[in-house]
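As a warm-up, study this chain.
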Amino acid sequence: MSNRFDRLHPLVSFCYFAGSITLLLAMLHPLFLGAAFVAVLAVTFIYDHGGNLRKWTVFIVISGLFIAILNPVFNERGRHVLFVAYNHRFSLEAILIGGMNALSLMSIIALFVTYNEVMTPNKLLFLFSKIFPQFAVLLMLTLRFIPLMRRRLEEISAVQASKGIYVTDGKLRDRVKNGMLYVQVLLTYSLEEAIQTADSMKARKYGTGRRTSYEYFIFTKTDLAALFYLLILFGTVLYGRIKGLGYLNVYPLMEPLSLSPQEGVTFVLFLLFFIFPFVVEVGGRIRWRL
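Now compare it with the structure written out below.
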């Protein structure tokens, strides 16, 4: 995908990601969540050609399977009993709820893969530095924590492997000992860099005066149209959710999976919200050709 979505105003991009997460948490219907998961994967794959998505595939799959299995293991409610194992009833309702929660979690994780590429720290500071400067810095540091730790751990693993220290080979006791050594080095590395960052911010007198933006983003008519598009779709879908659309009642009696005409309209609007980057890309290409 081109960088048309990336070149939008940070407010528009932030509203898209915040609205997507909100809708993923609000809607509880397998068709809605399944379509959203496919749309998020497609956007993530096309945006970075699957580079970052492949790195997170194992984590996404394991997290989804864990949530999907966890609910039917601890929940026996439901009239449609599929099978019984060790005096435990596995019902269709429990498995369905676990699957919907898994789809929601996997979609959010996949969404953050694109979020880390689009919403750079500079954009976050531009949005929140004037209103909540401390919150902006804390949010920026928090969102970069997981990928930063992952890169550091890869570097530490490469150095330790050159010394013949592995966490995948050998006895269990040796692997645990080597793993604790990895964690010790990672924490020491992180604390040293945190001290350097704090000294650098203090030397630049952060927080002592009025902040200026490193890069200035201009809100254009295109950004206004994109923001209007997102707000209309988000408000309409959320209103439908308040009216009970896009929510599958499982207990006490499970509703049919088919969508009513009103839910069908809500589903289309819901999907249009998630494919917003495609709309931006296609609209930009049509505008360029014309």
